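PROTEIN DESIGN WORKSHEET
SECTION A - STRUCTURE
LENGTH: 445
TOKENS:
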């Protein structure tokens, strides 16, 4: 054992998820919390809790010095970053290691390499994966962009090298839009990330976002845990995820998984990670990005594989090997996750912080609700609006949908508006029910 106590550098439902996994492994836990989170469940569920500063993230959950101090004071020899905040900050991972603290995640160089979307794409193309046709490396000038578009054709999409997850993207449908778009994309990238590099790809119409969960250990073993369909998004925020994808059959899954394994093996990846693919309407798929963290939607994978991804991630960081083989991974049934946000779908999904006055947890067979809320809990305005993830499993996709509809009827959250009514509409939508979805679904519904 390299560590016996884990500090959880996060808040909300993911902090609870990590604390539970650590306790099942007989590890002690330390929560960190901001002044506004002193009553929060993560601070209570952990064995110890340390206040790390005022509510703004940069003074608390993003403050590396304070988090490292909390680990040193409590003797925590490992830090789990969760998702968001410091999860994909290579400097943070390096600082942990230089302080003798195990960062529960990949090596810093892998975070850094995959954070540069141009480098990530180049690395994966060299490993034999197909990237979306486009520029090799960054575009230097409008002239270069025009020349490339003459050969690949419009529409095209400009993406920031330091972006990802939809930040700093621009679509161009003709030369005029390309000229303006290139300059704007460069300026936006410079302002947002301090890095003006932009690359260009053929724009794929009505694609699906399909990603493969992988786990890699310290001895080069990598396993793939099936795919997740994450096409139901609004402004690059996923709303609904499921596993398996309604369009992926056994044969296509073998190909997706073998591409993901090739990607992870080629860089010697360790920890939990996700290879994101964009799939066109002919089911051609292309490498898009690699996420080097535990993701919000990991529970759908857990429900169909029976594998606790967070526990595996912690065990790997503790030097253990993955105790099962690829042949042992069996996908059973179907799981769907609805993200419940403190947002008003009637008012353009504006965040609505406030106090929860009443809460009824949906329950029953095949229902899991990962949440940090309780009756009386105050949702602060300073953080992400995710307040819970409703995950339903069934033997078939239809059973999972029926269960989700039932759970969405049963759940009660009073005091604030939530995205629950919107999820009821999605689950009733004939196109969703038939699996006929793409990243355009929400706009078209
Ligand atoms: C694309 C694309 C179409 N063609 N790239 C959005 C998030 C970022 N990871 C990349 N994204 C896209 N890249 C090409 N060449 C469409 C999107 C996209 C998208 C992707 C996944 C899920 C939702 C999306 C919504 C709009 C655009």
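SECTION B - SEQUENCE
RESIDUE ASSIGNMENT:
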């Amino acid at each position: 054992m390299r560590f016996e106590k884990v500090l959880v550098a996060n808040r909300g439902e993911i902090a609870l998820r990590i604390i539970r996994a650590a306790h099942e492994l007989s590890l002690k836990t330390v929560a960190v919390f901001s002044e506004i989170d002193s009553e929060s469940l993560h601070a209570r569920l952990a064995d110890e809790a340390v206040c790390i500063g005022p509510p703004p993230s940069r003074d608390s959950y993003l403050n590396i010095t304070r988090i490292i101090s909390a680990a040193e004071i409590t003797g925590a020899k490992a830090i789990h970053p969760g998702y968001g905040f410091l999860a994909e900050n290579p400097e943070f991972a390096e600082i942990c290691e230089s302080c003798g603290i195990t960062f529960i995640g990949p090596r810093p160089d892998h975070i850094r390499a995959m954070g540069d979307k141009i480098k990530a794409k180049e690395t994966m193309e060299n490993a034999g994966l197909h990237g979306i046709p486009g520029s090799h490396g960054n575009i230097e000038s409008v002239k270069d962009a025009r020349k490339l578009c003459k050969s690949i054709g419009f529409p095209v999409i400009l993406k920031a090298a330091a972006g990802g997850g939809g930040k700093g993207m621009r679509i161009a449908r003709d030369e005029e839009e390309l000229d303006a778009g290139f300059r704007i994309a460069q300026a936006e990238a410079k302002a947002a990330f301090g890095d003006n590099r932009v690359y260009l790809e053929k724009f794929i119409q009505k694609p699906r976002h399909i990603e493969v969960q992988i786990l890699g250990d310290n001895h080069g073993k990598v396993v793939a845990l099936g795919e997740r369909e994450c096409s139901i998004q609004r402004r690059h925020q996923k709303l609904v995820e499921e596993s398996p994808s309604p369009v992926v059959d056994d044969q296509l899954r073998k190909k997706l998984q073998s591409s993901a394994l090739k990607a992870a093996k080629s860089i010697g990846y360790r920890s939990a990670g996700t290879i994101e693919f964009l799939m066109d309407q002919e089911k051609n798929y292309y490498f898009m990005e690699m996420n080097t963290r535990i993701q919000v939607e990991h529970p759908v994978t857990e429900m169909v594989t029976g594998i606790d991804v967070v526990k595996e991630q912690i065990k790997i960081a503790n030097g253990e090997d993955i105790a099962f083989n690829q042949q042992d991974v069996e996908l059973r049934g179907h799981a769907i996750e609805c993200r419940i946000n403190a947002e008003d779908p009637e008012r353009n999904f504006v965040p609505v912080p406030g106090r929860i006055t009443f809460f009824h947890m949906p329950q029953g067979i095949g229902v899991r609700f990962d949440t940090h809320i309780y009756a009386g809990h105050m949702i602060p305005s300073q953080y992400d609006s995710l307040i819970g993830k409703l995950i339903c499993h069934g033997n078939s996709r239809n059973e999972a949908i029926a269960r989700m509809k039932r759970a969405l009827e049963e759940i009660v959250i009073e005091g604030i508006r939530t995205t629950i009514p919107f999820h009821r509409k999605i689950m009733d939508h004939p196109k969703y029910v038939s699996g006929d979805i793409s990243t355009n679904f929400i706009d078209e519904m």
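SECTION C - NOTES
The chain has a mean pLDDT of 97.
The first strand starts at residue 5 and ends at 8.
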